[in-house]
Amino acid sequence: MENIRQTIASDFEKSFFKTVLVSVCLIFLLLSCACFAQTTYLPHYTSKNGLASNNCYYIHQDKKGFIWIATDAGLSRFDGTNFQNFTIEDGLPDTQILQIKEDRQDKLWFLALNGQLSYLKDGKFYNGNNSELLKKLNFNTVIVSFLEDKKGRIWLGTNSNLIVLWDGKSISKFVSPNINQQFTNAFLHEDEVGNIYAYSDESTQKFNGNSFSLISNNVNPLSYMAAFNAPDRSLYYLDGFGLNQFQKGKINSIIRIPDNLLKNMSGYFYYDAKEQEVWLASNNGALALSKSGKTVMYLQGISINQSIKDNSNNMWFATNQGIYMLPNINSRLSIIDAESGLSSNVIKSIAKDSKNRLWLGTDDAVIDILNISNFEIDEVGMDDYKKYKTIKQITYDPKNQSVYFASDYGLGVFRNIYKTKDDVKYLKETNNSMFVIKHFSLSERDNHLAIALSSGVVFLSDRINQLEFNSLKYKEKEDFFKNRSYHVFYDKNGSLWFSNINGLFEFNKVSLIHHYRNNTLLTKRINDIQQLPDGTLVLATDGYGVLFYKNNKIVKQLTQKDGLTNDICTKLFIKSKEIWVLTNKGVNKISNYQQSDVTNFDYGKDLLTEDVNSLYIDDSTAYFATNKGLILFKYNNKNLPRNLPKVYITSIIKDKERLSIDKDNFVFESGNNTILFTFGAVDFTTSDITYRYRLNETSSWVETRTRRLDFSALQPGDYNFEVSAKSQNNAWGPSAKISFTIKAHFWQSFWFLSLIILLVGYIFYRLAVYITRRQKDKEQEQLLLKNRILMLEQQALQAMMNPHFVFNVMNSIQHYINTQNTTSANKVLTGFARLIRKNLEICTKSYITIEEELEYLNLYLKLEKNRFGDKLQYIINVDDNIDKDETLIPSMLLQPYVENAIWHGIMPKETGGEIQINIKIEKENTLNIEIIDDGVGIENSLKAKKDKHISKGMQLTKERLNLLGQIEAKPIQLKVYQNTTNGTSVFISIPL
């Protein structure tokens, strides 16, 4: 780039004398510009703000409004809030981009230093690697001019003897054969009738349909940077005399420009036909020259590469220090600082008198007096530098034509300010005690003066004649209120409001009212108090936004959620019904607090943020005292553009594939169904942009601050993605829409789902039939089992009434009768009768209590013992923890095993034996029963018998227990085994 510029500039630098002349003229020009007392603020964007590089060559605004910046590190696209950068990885052929052009098909063409062309279409970059056309348009030379004629053909001028034409089908090359009349650095132009001209460093040639031929038409641009094609197909260019227009074959002189300014040009110029103003890019700043002869310089000392104006009338400057924006004339901020004549850059307080003069308190023990009409500055120094170093508050007293001022350690007043500035009087403490001032307020109804001190609130009844107080003679609740205070304020009725560490108070000359008791918000720190015309108090709080207090109630609270830049509010200013609010993050204006109509002035956020100390608002201009000087701007300008932000979709990525943003309807096959949308709204006046989106017209809007939305795992169906934007509290702008359809998988199709439903229905039917049949089979099986159990119980009952047992009992009774032992006969007969009756009772029950079972066993064993005498002994042990009346066991369970122990275990022994029955609880849910005898043993008994006879009663009981185990959830466990050499144990475990 520098080599190209040196080639162009070589014709301008022919003598040392001319260079000195240029410098002298520029110095005089700058001195003439310095007569303005205010400096226009230009927002500055660098790599720290996201710009690809600070070395910027070219700026272009596309048809959508985005600002594109060509740098030595790639491209940047700016929407007023964010920069999006593009490099070789995104498809650029080179990082150093020199120019940006846009054709009628909305393609953005990028002219790179390495000579390779590329363009952006529908969000995708095309270069020599993915475009056969661009591969053929690579000529290893730098392209310096680009022209699309009315036939749609593309013409390219280069820095060598070459002009290229692409007509949409083929590429043509034109080379000048004359070595002294070549096409070097040719600028290409098409006039109103379609003639193509090539203005190079060495010649002017015209295309005749087949080739170029030399012509002479007196159009001699200084270089390809000194010419541009206007939309009406006229040519604006700079020559040695100034700005000219070539239109319809005639040359019109537009603005005469001094030769020294032309020779100091370093980049592309811009002409504003509407304002009849030309902007020159020089090595020492940007120069604006009007046809009337007015000349203004911006960015003094900075080398400018290009100047352009966007569609909102903002000027943009490409420099080697980033880009600068000069807001349109209705939105500009101005700065008055030490370089403009103020005594200091730090302005702590501000007030305005009735003669259009601003009184500015500084941090240098000086009050500057600025006449707004002519920007003349006067200053007044304080007598005590240390005490009055920082003037933090200034208040104008129109009634007495005085200006009161205060520092942390003192208060004073300038009297007769329209006659003199030397009549000053200071507040005096009678005992010369030190005091710290937080704030003061003047009553409009009388001469009262209230002062908020670190120790409390004190007020003077006559500030005109007695500007002093005695801290030792305070009268509590009369002229002094204790506790550390922050702010004091006299309302229109003369009542004194003040805030201290407890909250908000009011002293109405009669009583002290504790308003902080009405609402906890009034106990918070209050930094400022003002009053609306309707009597509503406006309270600036420290962390809770702005409160509106009327009739002893908080009628409204506005916070950051309502549009304030921050909830920490420091200063208020009321102009008519509008409320201006300073926060530690910027400036806000509340036009209608009841409707939460909040505006913040974001376009000056570099200046109007945490460094704003105070403010004053007049009919059309807002003034801000900051640490960078006095900032002012026209806020009440009816010409201020208020266009709604228009949002654009900048990229669509489906399953990692970038799609064309030119289409508004897509049909996607089934996949991961992940879609990424990026979008942005162009607004160069604020970065406070809110977006809203939805996926269907029937869906609710979702608000967001992000410019990137990722929708994952979307279900098949039809979608209509819609997004819109609004700035601050304005209305929503027009929406950008993209419709798309996600096809269903084959298994999500209607016929497949129908088939699955039918198949699932058939399976459920078959399963229901199977379950029903199985349930019936199970019920039938249960019925059979119960019948079998009943039969076994009947058989067990019969087994319990063993004929031999009955016969033996009857023989015993007969024996006692024959021996005339009636007592024993009656005893046996009674026991036998009771046993038979018990049999009849339990035969109708499946389960009986342990008490019943023990009663039955005792009856049976007594009868057997009566027969066998001392040969049979038995013991029954029952655990005390067992509730014998509530614990149930299967009926007819133990008797068969006891009988078997007597007849087959003990009776074969000559000496007889003993039966032990143990019943106990195991683990709270299991009943264990043991029947132990010391007879011959079951295994020995079976060996001695030839027929291997097994007790019928035991066999029936075992089979019955097996059947019960199939019905019940937990089966009964039964074990019968021999104890070592003799004796038998029966173990029964019954789940409870």
Architecture overview:
The protein is α+β, with helices and mostly antiparallel strands and 992 residues long. Helix content is 18%, strand content 38%. It is built from 11 helices and 75 strands. It starts with a helix and ends with a strand. Residues 1-36 have low confidence and may be disordered.
What fraction of the residues are assigned to beta strands by DSSP?
A: 35-45%
Q: How much helical structure, as a percent, in the residues? A: 10-25%
Q: Count every beta strand, where a strand is a DSSP E run of 2 or more residues.
A: 75
Which strand order do you get reading across the main beta sheet? 1-30-59-58-57
Structural class: alpha+beta
Distance between the termini: 99 Å
The low-confidence runs, each spanning 5 or more residues with pLDDT under 50, are 1-36
Number of helical regions? 11
**Main sheet summary:** 5 strands, antiparallel
- Gyration radius (Cα, Å) is 54 Å
How would the global form be characterised? elongated
Task: Look at the structure and give the mean pLDDT.
Answer: 87
